[in-house]
Amino acid sequence: MEDVVTLQHVNKAYKDFALKDISFSVKKGYITGFIGPNGAGKTTTIKLMLNLLEADSGSINVFGHNYLGHVNDIKQRIGFIYADHHLYGHLTIEKMKRVLAPFYKNWDDQVFAEYVERLQLPWTKKIGHLSKGMGTKLSIAIALSHHADLIILDEPTSGLDPISRREILELLTEVIQDEEKTVFFSTHITTDLEQIADYITFIDQGSIVFSESKESITERYYLVRGANELLDKDIRSLFVQVRQTSVGFEGLTNQAELVRRLMEDHVVMERASLEDIMVYTVGKRKEE
């Protein structure tokens, strides 16, 4: 399976924050979700992937190359969508297209027109007057119209209504159907990733917690509920974090098979959501 992006032992230090020994890959033809709490290092990681920052150490390869000597070729093949687009608000969509098209050697006017029509974007309306959802759709249309092989999205559905979010998720799912395009999707809305992601990379405090297939994550992580008297030192060690009340405990485990063998007759188990995994993992770290 081909890796479109590979980060190996990447470090980047600031005065009050650091990315520490970051290693993960983004698989070609799939959607990789990127999750983590505020301040975890998601935006810094994306900037490194886009060559907007330089790593202190480690290596970053995109399409099999590092940026040195390949920066223009690599950036031609990337489409980047921010939470808030950075397009010229005083221009109409038609005029914005005329500004952007010459920068991309693979720009396709026909594809752009098809997406503008499909997404019901108003050609003659100034971009500054578009809703947040329309601005995001326009950014995606631009990325797809220069035939980008890698689409990187940073909180694209944040603040959007459910209908706009669903349209964008459906569009991203379609994008990867030919298995040639790749999506890297950073978001706080973990339910979006549960719908469309194939892989999940979880970062916390500048370190990777895990980076693996969504299927393997959902098979391993479970929420477990039971009586407090079931908890002893050995049982507690099976959980990422345990929360207790007067009526019982709830805990997150990443050893679901072992918990099932030892406790199945005495507890209730259900698959953990990505939000559960993130909340309990960060909660454990804060306890420590």
Automatic annotation (TrEMBL):
CDD domains: ABC_DR_subfamily_A (cd03230). SMART domains: AAA. Residues 5-230 form the ABC transporter domain. SUPFAM superfamilies: P-loop containing nucleoside triphosphate hydrolases. InterPro entries: AAA+_ATPase, ABC_transporter-like_ATP-bd, ABC_Transporter_VariousFunc, P-loop_NTPase. The keyword Nucleotide-binding applies. Keywords: ATP-binding, Nucleotide-binding, Transport. GO terms for molecular function: ATP binding; ATP hydrolysis activity. PANTHER family: ABC TRANSPORTER ATP-BINDING COMPONENT (PTHR42939:SF3), ABC TRANSPORTER ATP-BINDING PROTEIN ALBC-RELATED (PTHR42939). This is ABC transporter ATP-binding protein. It comes from Alkalicoccobacillus porphyridii.
